[in-house]
Amino acid sequence: MKLGRKIRNLRVARGYTQEELADRCDLSRSFISQLENDQVSPSIDTLERILRVLGSDLKSFFASDEKREKIVFKVEERVPMYLDELGIKGYILMDNIEDKSIDPKLIELVPGAETEEEEPHEGDEFGYVIKGKLELILDNKVYKVGEGDCFYYCADRKHKIRNPYKNNVKFLWINIE
């Protein structure tokens, strides 16, 4: 089980940024980031504090789910990502899967919106623009990606996505471990 992924999924489902979660738990944002990327392990007290803020507890968090293969993920099962204040509407497409190696999201950015810049991390990222166009920024280099285009890169450099255009952009974004 990936502890960090479970915590990140709970945080996103609650609509918290890493900074908001850190503030509510009296921790640093960098600690939350490291925890979500499985680079550090929390003490039991710290984990209980984080889970309490995220509306869970140790028993629920570690309860073993029935092991069965899930093939179809229905629209109504999507987990919304509450980032409206940033002009981002998103959905986690596959939730409650412990050992998945991909994390697909459906994202829509309003004109002028951009994702937070992510620090370099493990894995790769893939995107497919369904509607509109966007800019992918990798270490300050800008790549223009249009409708029907896709992108793929190693996430070992700073990266973010923005919509400097006049229309919404909708794209599939997949993190691959």
TrEMBL record:
Is DNA-binding among the key words of this record?
A: yes
Per the record's keyword annotation, is DNA-binding included, yes or no?
yes
Q: Name the UniProt key words of this record, in alphabetical order.
A: DNA-binding
Any GO MF annotation of the entry? DNA binding
**Domain HTH cro/C1-type intervals:** 7-61
Q: Name one GO cellular component term.
A: cytosol
Classification via InterPro entries? Cro/C1-type_HTH, Cupin_2, Lambda_DNA-bd_dom_sf, RmlC-like_jellyroll, RmlC_Cupin_sf, TransReg_Diox_bact_type
Transmembrane residue ranges = none
**Any single Pfam family the record assigns to this protein:** Cupin_2
- In Swiss-Prot or TrEMBL terms, this protein is called Transcriptional regulator, XRE family with cupin sensor
| High-level lineage | Bacteria, Thermotogati, Thermotogota, Thermotogae, Thermotogales
